[in-house]
Amino acid sequence: MPKYARMKTQVPGPRSREILELMQRYVPRAMTPHVPAVIARASGAIVEDVDGNQFIDFSGGIGVVNVGHAPPEVVDAVTEQTRRFLHTDFTVVPYEPYVRLAERLARQAPGGPWKVAFFNSGAEAVENAVKLARYATGRAGVIALEGAFHGRTYMAMTLTSKVKPYKERFGPFVPEVYRVPAPYCYRCPLGLRYPDCGLACVESMKRALVTTVAPEAVAAVIVEPVQGEGGFVVPPPEYLPAVRELTARHDILLIVDEIQTGFGRTGRFFAVEHFGVRPDVLTVGKSLAAGLPLSGVIARAELYDRLGESVVGGTFVGNPVACAAGLAVLDIFERQQLVERASRLGELIRQRMMAMQERFAIIGDVRGLGAMMAMELVRDRSTKEPADVETSRILKRCFEQGLIAVKAGIYGNVIRMLVPLVIEEEQLLEGLAILEQAIAQEIRA
């Protein structure tokens, strides 16, 4: 008998249907939600809809609520800040929460010395990281990877790899962006097998600096230490150090996009720490403020010092309420030791997924770091034909049984885990049982 996933009605229930009918009338279809149920409240890893159905949340708002839904410490900090003031525009009248949060992130990031600027969304952080790189180097070119996701504004969308649904019919895109193969070992775009490949993906980047764009024209290489939307693709351990060596040789900046991987998701505060690499720029967002819109660009201080006054900014960037939430998030991480907890949760998820892989031939690959785990579904393990339709049906069965889970991958056939890091182990295991049952139902169908 499920303890946490409690379904009182079919999904959607009558109250959700009423609201969703209004949504169809007044909200663009382009914003169609993944789960056809309207949230009423949430706490920790549990979401309740307006019909009283209770779900275990494995999506975490796409990696936003690492500290859980509505943690009391964040709610209290936000409430207190709203009593003080809501807005000034930091570049008009500065405020302490912004400065204190910048200080703590600068101390947290590997390497340095760092300075930090805040923005609203992950895409804004990426845009400003590129602006900084171009300004600091005097170069225009940016190299991105196949399978990358960096956002939906124009520079960020240009850097993003997947065409549908993100880029189709939105061109032309921003110039001077160059694409190279990603270290996607399960589906090596070069048809090779790691470790016998000799890191051919790095060799492809080297070749691009000869055949596609001159290194002295490249401002930055931007990478996710683990590709998120691309399918939780974990590079070989030698990959990022080799890219770092290549970029350093040509005075190219290395931008590491930690918007989804950061804040403990992989068992390190920043995922790049797994690889022993010191980037020039880090972008952060998502779980930075537990659901409030806040992102940041952490960059080497001397890069920021090259900028003139008022070169970056924006009316709402680094909002004081969101910064107060960010400080509370860092307190929760320290007090609850969530980075270490992510490693423990990840091991539980990995063990259960590996057991599912032994049971179900549809699971072609299990991969991830820490609690950032995923499994890729295929119709045939030898051909690796993506099981995209089956993946969607499995996820539909999941939320009908009280589990919210989401997919990823260039073929839409990867089930990814973005559980809140505060999830109780009993809740995690119940959710994994629902997922396993949904896969079994798909196999029998």
Automatic annotation (TrEMBL):
Pfam families, per the entry: Aminotran_3
PROSITE patterns referenced in this protein's UniProt entry, alphabetically: AA_TRANSFER_CLASS_3
Taxonomic superkingdom: Bacteria
First-level EC class: transferase
Transferase listed as a keyword: yes
One GO molecular-function entry: 4-aminobutyrate:2-oxoglutarate transaminase activity
Keywords: Aminotransferase, Pyridoxal phosphate, Transferase
Cofactor: pyridoxal 5'-phosphate
Gene3D superfamilies for this protein: Aspartate Aminotransferase, domain 1 (3.90.1150.10), Type I PLP-dependent aspartate aminotransferase-like (Major domain) (3.40.640.10)
EC number(s) per entry: 2.6.1.19, 2.6.1.22
S-adenosyl-L-methionine in keyword set: no
Catalytic activity, reaction form: 4-aminobutanoate + 2-oxoglutarate = succinate semialdehyde + L-glutamate; (S)-3-amino-2-methylpropanoate + 2-oxoglutarate = 2-methyl-3-oxopropanoate + L-glutamate
InterPro entries xref list: 4NH2But_aminotransferase_bac, Aminotrans_3, Aminotrans_3_PPA_site, Class-III_PLP-dep_AT, PyrdxlP-dep_Trfase, PyrdxlP-dep_Trfase_major, PyrdxlP-dep_Trfase_small
Signal peptide coordinates: none
Pathway participation: Amino-acid degradation; 4-aminobutanoate degradation
Family designation: Belongs to the class-III pyridoxal-phosphate-dependent aminotransferase family.
Protein name (database record): (S)-3-amino-2-methylpropionate transaminase
Gene label: gabT
